[in-house]
Every structure is written in C-alpha cells, then in structure tokens.
Design brief:
Elements (H helix, E strand, L loop, with lengths): L9 E4 L5 E4 L5 H13 L3 E5 L5 H12 L3 E4 L5 E4 L13 E2 L4 H12 L4 E5 L10 H9 L3 E4 L7 E4 L8 E3 L5 H11 L5 E6 L6 H8 L3 E6 L5 E6 L8 E3 L4 H13 L4 E8 L6 H8 L3 E10 L2 E9 L7 E2 L11 H9 L4 E5 L11 H11 L4 E3 L3 E5 L9 E2 L5 H13 L4 E3 L12 H8 L2 E4 L6
Parallel strand pairs: 2-15, 3-14, 6-7, 10-11, 18-19, 22-23
Antiparallel strand pairs: 1-23, 1-24, 3-5, 4-5, 7-9, 8-9, 11-13, 12-13, 15-17, 16-17, 19-21, 20-21
Helix pairs in contact: 1-2, 1-3, 1-6, 3-5, 4-5, 7-9, 7-11, 9-10, 9-11
The chain binds shikimate-3-phosphate.
InterPro entries: Enolpyruvate_Tfrase_dom, Enolpyruvate_Tfrase_sf, EPSP_synthase, EPSP_synthase_CS, RNA3'P_cycl/enolpyr_Trfase_a/b
Subcellular location: Cytoplasm
Keywords: Amino-acid biosynthesis, Aromatic amino acid biosynthesis, Cytoplasm, Transferase
Length: 451
C-alpha cells in the first residue's frame, strides 16, 4: 500500500533537555527477512518484536499474495505459516510495495525463480529507484522481465521452469542485491554464489543459516566475502525475535548528543558489526557514548546505548565505512552541523538512490536552516555551525529519514524547523513522535505548538 494520505507538516523546537530510557521498534531489515523466510519455510514461524511499519506490512501483504498465511495476535506475536520453497502461488493482483525498496527487491528475488508471473509497483519515490541492479542477475537465472525503460517499477517478472544457478559479483555494495540473488538461489538447482567485494549487512546469510539452508560464507584475499547457497533444500520454521533497529536508534542517539543537558539511553539496540558505523563515527567525534549490557540473542549482538550531550568535533568519515552506516548519513550530517569544524563524508554516492536523492535532500535541508555544506559526486562536507541555525522548512521527498533527520535538528536549533510531511515517518518508525515526547522533545503538527 502506498502512503497516500495528505501531507502532515511537523515542527520541532528546542526546549528542555532530553532525558530517559527508550526502546525503538524492531529492525526493518530483519523484520522483512523474517516474514519472507517464514513464507518460504514449511510449517509455522513466529516473529516477536516485528517492526509494524508500512514497509514491513507491505511485505506481509506480499507474502500473503504468494500463498503464506500471516497473522498477528493480540499480544503482537506474528505467525507465518509458510507456503514452502518452490510452492509460491501466483498473486492475483499487482503487488504495491509502497515506499519499500528492500521489500520489493528481495521479493523480486524470491519470485524471480518461481514459475509464476508477478507484477510489482510502488509509490512516487519507489517508481524512481533503480531495479536493474536486481533484475540483471535475475535475467541471468532465466527470469523474464517486462519493465519500463531504465528498469523501473511498475514491472512484471516471470520465473523460469528451471532456474539457472549463477555466480554473481555484486557491482555496488548493496545488501539488497546480495540478498535478492541468495533468495533467488534458494529455488535454483545447485549452488548460487554471491561475491561481495565490500561486505554489507549480513542478516540474510545469518537468518538463512538459522532457517536451515545450506549456506557457506568464505573470505577472499581482498577482504571480500564469497557466499554460496545450495538451492532446492527445505527451510525449517523458526522462532525469531527482532532486535531494536540501530537505524531508528540513530535519531534519539544524535538528539541526545546535540540537545544541551540531555542524557538518553536506547535499550536493546542491534549491534551487528555491519550496522555500527554511526556509533564508531560519533565516538571519533568525541561523543560521550557508552555501550553497556552487551549480550547475544538469536545469533545477533545487542546492547544499550547511553549518550550525554557532548561538544562534537568534525571528522573525516572513510569511504569503506559507508555500508555499515548507509542509512545514518542524514542524521550524521545533523551531528556535524553542531560540531566544531568540518565533517567530510567520503564514498556516499549510494545516497543518491535511496528513498530520495539523500545527498541533495540533506544538503538542501541544511542550507535551508543556515548550515554551510558542499555536496560532490560521492562526498558530503558539512561545516559546523557558525551562527544561529534553524527557521527553515525542509522538503522530505517521501523520505522518512529526511523527515526524522531535520526534526532532530529542530530539537537543538535556535529557531523551529518544519518538515513538509511527517506522515512518511510511518514507513519505518511509527512511534517516532511518541518516543520523542517521552524524552521531553517538542515535536508537533505545524501550527499546533505543544503546551
Ligand atoms: C537494506 C540495505 C540497504 C539499506 C536499506 C536496507 C537491507 O540498502 O539502505 O535501508 O535490508 O538489505 P542497499 O542494499 O541498497 O544499500
């Protein structure tokens, strides 16, 4: 389902210090994958802590359309009765994936090696995003594709009777591409191999192993990873507990660092090494940031992240860190705006093909609020504040992280900051406003200042 309600402008104002211990919703990447692997297993998978956001609900709807039975009980426990690998049914209608790039790319991987036809579309943001990066390996496996020029949604795919297993070197560091090929490989006879020169988040590999797939991960001499899945086995249902999303935790963490007097703890945050680039960068910037209560659950590391207001300093963020913080650059730019000196982010060209062109959207939002910055082809340079900031209205371009980023800016700015549509936040973080209210932050509908 597409986000179709009228735009809902929100305004953030500085005020009291942010104080408290909060929990952000479940990880979006793991939530999508839990529903998908559950749909491919035979038997009942349970999922607790599922992120109940628009993007993930679109995956639930898609997996139902492919034949899985998916339900939520009154306590928020989700059950998935899988259709089974190789047994997906042909969807009766177009699958509208709304804003969800991860969802649609992984679902195309799953459907692409089943002998069924499926048509996918999305909202005004998703139809602009490149799908060729997933369609190219699928075509090599025998999937037929009918698409608009440039391989954009809406598009239809038809999987072959006998898919060809492939060995595929991912041309861009993308966990979505890697995952789409591995999921396609699940229903191809023999071994499908993905070579990723630059490692990206590894939730698909970990969860496939957990669901009993035959999967092997090797390392090549250049630090890359070689992942091989053996197709046409059976997946065993699992009980999945979804940890809190580090990409959502990033917002209260940065807010706690830039709002004077704050002390914020975000509990139970996923600390997978491919997701912690922002925490590393903030520590290099001089953040008072402590990770405690580190433990392992369901094969993933979790911990509590505690921050206190800190005077940050500008740093250079190396290009090879990008995959481990790819969704966190917008909010890092806000931390950089409050730092002494300049922060330079290298190797961030993938930001141009996210829910919006995030390089352009971040730069425009910063400038609208009086912060100097320069964007290059693959770089973003942000100069720490030199005078009063805020007072601007930011265009979100249907991008949830742009909306949340600039509301965080407003919580510490000299003048209020407005985003033109806060409704888009529901795609990944439906409790965002309530969580900031709990911490004492002032975010309200534009024109309705909180009492
Ligand atoms: C995701 C991978 C990343 C990330 C997205 C979630 C995933 O995209 O930006 O929000 O769950 O695999 P890319 O793989 O395109 O970098």
């Amino acid at each position: 389902m597409s986000h179709s309600t009228a735009a809902r402008p929100l305004t953030a104002r500085s005020g009291a210090a942010l104080k408290g211990r909060v929990t952000v919703p479940g990880d979006k990447s793991i939530s999508h994958r839990a529903l998908m692997l559950g749909a491919l297993a035979i038997g009942r998978t349970t999922v607790s802590g599922l992120l109940e956001s628009e993007d993930v609900l679109n995956t639930a709807a898609a997996m139902r359309a492919f034949g899985a039975r998916i339900q939520r009980d009154a306590n928020g426990l989700w059950t998935v009765d899988g259709a089974g690998l190789g047994s997906l049914v042909e969807p009766e209608t177009v699958i509208d994936y709304g804003n969800a790039g991860t969802g649609v790319r992984l679902a195309m991987g799953i459907a692409g090696t089943h002998p069924i036809a499926a048509t996918f579309t999305g909202d005004a943001s998703l139809v602009k995003r490149p799908m060729g990066r997933v369609l190219e390996p699928l075509r090599m496996m025998g999937t037929r594709v009918i698409s608009r020029s440039g391989d954009r949604l809406p598009l239809s795919i038809h999987g072959p009777g006998t898919p060809a297993p492939i060995s595929y070197r991912v041309p861009v560091p993308s966990a979505q591409v890697k995952s789409a090929v591995l999921l396609a490989g699940l229903n191809a006879p023999g071994q499908t191999t993905v070579i990723e020169p630059i490692p990206t988040r590894d939730h698909t590999e970990r969860m496939l192993a957990g669901f009993g797939a035959t999967i092997q991960v090797d390392h090549d001499d250049n630090g890359g990873r070689v992942i091989t899945v053996t197709g046409q086995g059976e997946l065993q249902p699992q009980d999945v507990t979804v940890p809190a999303d580090p990409s959502s935790a990033a917002f209260p963490i940065v807010a706690g660092l830039i709002v004077p007097g704050s002390e914020v703890t975000v509990a139970d945050v996923l600390l997978n090494e491919h997701r912690t680039g922002l925490l590393t960068t903030l520590q290099e910037m001089g953040a008072d940031l402590e990770i405690t209560n580190i433990r392992e659950t369901g094969g993933e590391r979790l911990g509590d992240v505690r921050v206190r207001h800190s005077q940050l300093r500008g740093v250079e963020v190396p290009a090879d860190r990008a995959p481990s913080m790819i969704d966190e650059y917008p909010v890092l730019a806000v931390a950089a705006a409050f730092a002494h000196g300049t922060t330079t982010m290298l190797g961030v060209e993938e930001l141009k093909v996210k829910e919006s062109d995030r390089l352009a959207a971040v730069a425009a939002g910063l400038r609208a609020n009086g912060i100097e910055c320069e964007e290059g082809e693959s770089t973003l340079r942000v100069h720490g504040r030199k005078g009063p900031i805020g007072g601007g209205t930011v265009t979100t371009h249907l991008d949830h992280r742009i909306a949340m980023t600039f509301l965080v800016l407003g919580l510490a700015a000299d003048r209020p900051v407005t985003v033109d549509d806060g409704g888009v936040i529901a795609t990944s973080f439906p409790t965002f406003e309530a969580l900031f209210a709990e911490l004492g932050g002032d975010i309200s509908e534009t024109g309705e200042q909180a009492a």
